[in-house]
């Protein structure tokens, strides 16, 4: 694969992007939603949701050479020129710096129909996954755990209305159908949580901050059915304990305040689901509402010490510290910040 990334296309082939350039000016014409889907499907040959590796080389080669009126051989564009173009384009459009182009990044790169481009919300991301979960609950009108075609159409209509854009019913149907085909990775005709998260970005996954990555690591597990025991093992594992040992009271407060959006001193409802969504994204690329609920059950079973269905700061700090303590041998107590366990004496005593 690495060898493929350095190779320009080796044979003469019809340039797919040339059809979208004006024959006289050679500039790109406005690309419709349907045409965008055709472009995406043409270059994402393995259907994994990214244009990368040899796919990216082919796309960039055709992007550069599509200005020519006729197909040309690979000798026309030097390796050095192609490499420079690749670096320039990735620098400008690869927002998450992963070395590949996703659907929303491609939409920024090409001259899209304005209303369709607005649907990607790149200029107006949600503040956090807490807001994402509120939006999810609003548009999952039948509480099925999925955003189905009519619900997606309702969401897109409200989104365009927020930008003061009014579209016809026919346009809405086209947009909804295109978005489904672009983001419905498992092709079940509806959007699960992880698919909707690609369509509706948030400003920041809080758990990508260094303190959280120290706790949860970078590994994608890609769990199969009935494999949530792996999550339980990870929550109770030595890596989490070692990270908890390094947590300060400020770290714990920072974690807590990021998700306690209403300031009521507890993480609950959409706040808790937002936390779980961020955590799930660290360990698994594809997940749905059932995965979040199962994860919630595990977390509350291990962390909700007073069984009120929510997490307060004392529970969060006590659980992290207790994991650190549990991983130590006799006489090897972890360094626990004094402030972190304030107000926890009664509960701690009852556990011993």
UniProtKB/TrEMBL annotation:
Pfam families: EF-hand_5, EF-hand_7
Gene3D superfamilies to which the protein is assigned, alphabetical: EF-hand (1.10.238.10)
Gene Ontology BP term (one): regulation of presynaptic cytosolic calcium ion concentration
InterPro entries documented for this protein: Calbindin_Ca-bind, EF-hand-dom_pair, EF_Hand_1_Ca_BS, EF_hand_dom
Record has Metal-binding as a keyword: yes
Keyword Calcium: yes
Biased composition (Polar residues): 343-352
Protein keywords: Calcium, Metal-binding, Repeat
Every EF-hand domain range: 31-66, 81-116, 127-162, 171-206, 247-282, 290-326
Family indicated by similarity: Belongs to the calbindin family.
Protein name, per record: Calbindin-32-like isoform X1
Protein source organism: Biomphalaria glabrata
Gene name linked to the record: LOC106067792
């Amino acid at each position: 694969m690495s060898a493929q990334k350095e190779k320009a296309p080796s044979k003469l082939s019809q340039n797919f992007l040339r059809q979208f350039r004006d024959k006289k000016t050679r500039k790109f014409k406005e690309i419709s939603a349907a045409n965008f889907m055709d472009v995406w499907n043409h270059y994402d040959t393995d259907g994994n949701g990214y244009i990368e590796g040899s796919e990216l080389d082919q796309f960039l080669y055709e992007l550069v050479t599509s200005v020519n009126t006729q197909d040309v051989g690979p000798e026309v564009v030097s390796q050095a020129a192609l490499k420079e173009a690749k670096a320039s384009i990735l620098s400008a459009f690869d927002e998450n710096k992963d070395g590949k182009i996703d659907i929303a990044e491609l939409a920024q790169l090409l001259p899209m129909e304005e209303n369709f481009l607005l649907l990607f919300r790149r200029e107006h991301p949600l503040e956090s996954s807490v807001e994402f979960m509120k939006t999810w609950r609003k548009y999952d009108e039948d509480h099925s755990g999925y955003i189905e075609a009519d619900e997606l159409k309702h969401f897109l209509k409200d989104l365009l209305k927020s930008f003061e854009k009014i579209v016809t019913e026919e346009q809405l149907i086209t947009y909804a159908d295109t978005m489904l085909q672009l983001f419905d990775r498992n092709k079940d005709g509806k959007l699960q949580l992880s698919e909707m998260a690609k369509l509706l970005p948030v400003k920041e996954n809080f758990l990508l901050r260094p303190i959280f990555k120290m706790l949860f690591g970078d590994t994608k597990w890609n769990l199969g059915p009935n494999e949530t025991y792996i999550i339980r093992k990870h929550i109770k594992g030595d890596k989490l304990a070692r990270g908890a040992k390094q947590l300060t009271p400020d770290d714990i407060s920072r974690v807590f305040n990021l998700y306690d959006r209403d300031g009521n001193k507890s993480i609950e409802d959409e706040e808790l689901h937002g936390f779980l969504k961020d955590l799930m994204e660290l360990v698994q690329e594809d997940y749905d509402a059932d995965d979040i609920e199962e994860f919630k059950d595990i977390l509350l079973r291990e962390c909700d010490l007073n069984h009120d269905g929510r997490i307060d700061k004392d529970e969060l700090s006590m659980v992290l510290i207790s994991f650190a303590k549990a991983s130590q041998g006799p006489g090897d107590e972890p360094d626990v910040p004094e402030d972190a366990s304030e107000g926890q004496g009664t509960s701690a005593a009852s556990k011993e």
